[in-house]
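Researcher: Here's the sequence for the chain we discussed earlier.
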Amino acid sequence: MTLEQLRIFIAVAEREHLTQAAEALHLTPSAVSSAIRVLEERYGIALFHRTGRRIELTETGAAFLPEAKATLARAAGADLFLTEIGGLKRGTLTLAASQTVAGSWLPPRLMRFKADYPAIDIRLGASNTEQVADAVLEGQAELGFVEGIVDHPVLAQRIVAHDRVVIVAPSGHPLAGRPADAAMLTTARWVLREPGSGTRSALIATLAGHGVREDALDVALSLPSNEAVRSAVLSGDALTAVSFSVVTDDIAAGRLLPVGFDLPERAFRSLRHKERYRSKAALAFEAML
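Model: Thanks. This is the structure I predict for it:
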């Protein structure tokens, strides 16, 4: 059974006249008659009584008419749904982002996208770089945004921004506002993001270049968010490494001061699965970046 056969059946049933139905459908009467006959023969039923030049529904045809109309309506609804998604008039954009990206760089861009496409539902999950990569790999997020380095052959990556990581200390700390070398950093206590965080990885990679292993650091706390790290450092005597965007206000107010040890600039990257379908919402968001 095809949607075209249903349309023909409904047109004939509503008019009880082959010629009028054919005119309404812009078909020939023979094409309409043939479609009805094929439908009846396929299911071994009679949908119409044919008496002379008259045609009227059988009991079976009358019972089938509401179902035929409902089926066409559902098909039209499905067509509208796909048309609207294709035209970005509805749909969902599922994203995952690392804490640093989700907390500062991404929100203004989400607001701009929402202004352009208000009917798109945006869902954002925030975690660390490794977890974001896993979410994209497993199909839980269509796009990911990270500040760490991800090495996986099926993930396409694109640099979308750059970020500065700084080491900071509370204002009363001996290293606050002073230059320091790698050896001096091993004498301090630290509060860091959890393993797997791109921010932590950036610090550890830089120290490794100076001959300092991660286990040489006195890490008092490993915490799962930038805000938790910031709060702990403000209330204690530990150092941390965070995105400059996280502590801009604290540095301006003198609550935290930079330590003079340069960390290299890092990139914010978008991630997508190379082999998965890319929705129009995702394509539109990527084009906006």
